[in-house]
Amino acid sequence: MSTANSAAADASHWSPPFLLYLGNAADDLAAKTARGLVQFRPEWCVGQFRGPECRTSVHVPDMDFAQARAAGANTMIVGVANAGGRLGPDSVADIIAALDAGMNVASGLHERLLSHPTIVEAARRNGRHLFDARTPPATPVGNGAKRAGRRLLTVGTDCSTGKMYTTLALETEMRGRGLAADFRATGQTGIFVAGRGIPIDAVVADFISGGIEWLSPERHDGGWDLIEGQGSLFHPSYAGVSLGLLHGAQPDALVLCHEPGRPHMRGLRHYPLPGLVATLETNLAAARLTSPGVVAVGLALNTSKLDPAGAVRACREAEDLLGLPAQDPMRDGVARIVNRLLESVPC
């Protein structure tokens, strides 16, 4: 049995094709890791495993572990995210069954696969690999020193507003124009999509900004590092990670991500969402500590719960409010946001 102990580990230890484990996910957001892989790497996803109480689907074939292995699945991705990132007894039993069926297992949860002796033993006896995406590599303390290259960071009004989707859409659009642009993953789903990155919310607080400096070092090719944002400066649970990420990224540009109509901060019914103006101003002020010239270049709206007319209206209202191009990356792409970026940040 081999283990992969950092997010920079050899991806051959958890290579596709994938079976996506949804377990008993309670809603669509709970399965966001699996959903992200189906969206951006559909060719890697052979099927999904759903428990008896699962309330969502990522719309690939349902399979048990033996069927998935027979269909060519090499790795089962634990494709769910929950508060605290815990592995329940049912999930532990299912992971052992997947290992016994001959698959590697990769997880992005805070609770490590390697913390369960029964999982470790199952991997050992089957000669399979375990990968904990939330085990960060060793990184330095941030120093805020100016480094060469250009960087964009996505920020949000809340968690799960589309920061990873937006960053990947920006990479696709910019590469399509022949520009050098690289997605820098900072969360478990992004790491699985990109094959590398750093789980920034698992880094010790003093090292968060340094972790992003490590992830996005100097570059001299005139290209862009597109850094996946996390959390929100307005979320009482996760603002610390968001702030450290802002400082370490030293962004030249920000894109603000938002889901119109969301009733409250994720997981906190007693906290309403902040306004777009306040969110953008607060993020720009925080970013100026290490990047005094930072500018906002667009808004990315997640309008998946709106009908087409409502989506158009939401984008128009946001655009009128902030004077920036507003697009839903999944419905409309991000061409106008990239246009503003190239106009606003000197080459």
UniProtKB/TrEMBL annotation:
This is DUF1611 domain-containing protein. InterPro entries: DgcN-like, DgcN-like_C, DgcN-like_N, P-loop_NTPase. It comes from the Bacteria. Residues 58-136 form the D-glutamate N-acetyltransferase-like N-terminal domain. Pfam families: DUF1611, DUF1611_N. Gene3D superfamilies: NAD(P)-binding Rossmann-like Domain (3.40.50.720), P-loop containing nucleotide triphosphate hydrolases (3.40.50.300). It comes from Luteimonas terricola. Residues 141-338 form the D-glutamate N-acetyltransferase-like C-terminal domain.
